[in-house]
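My current task is to audit a protein record that another person submitted. My question to you is simply how this chain folds and whether the tokens agree. This is what I was given:
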Amino acid sequence: MKSLIKLFVAVVALLSFNCANAQENPYELANTVAHNTIVQIKANKDSLSDRAVAEKIINENLMPHIDVKYAAYKVIGTSLKNTTAEQRENFTKAFAENMKNSFIKVLTKYTSQEIIPSAVKAVPEDETLVSVKMNIHEEGKKDLELVLKLRKNKKTNVWKAYDMVAENISMLESKVSEISPIIKNQGIEKAIEILNSNETK
């Protein structure tokens, strides 16, 4: 019994160590998150038509590592100074849901491909923005580039992704082009309403 307990403790410690290392290095983090997400998508490919299954995969494997607030504020842009704290909070919540929907649409297309991880590089202590390029490989086809853009929070030193570029399309830039004009011309409340109604692409 004691041997089993020691083994369990050792495994937990190893997992915690690997997780901590991934948090400290954006390349390791991006590789781990992308790998785990794709593995879960492939394992559940016959059930992805069930929205709840796809959403669970994205919620558990991807969303905890997304800097939703930073991405949301990038979309609000120069209009940020004209918003209240409550409006920013409501926008961020609506944007998070919309972002999750976009991840589901993009990532659930990759049900049989393999992810080729990025080479892990050392990152200078003062570096706060990193783009990690990976490839999605499918036999007989040209590899597709998948890029996760990550940002280090200066207060917590934790790296999180704020954008994903798949097939040369930036999810964040797409949202900026769709939503920022609405905020400028019709106000943030209208943008929140549209996000909640899932009318954006």
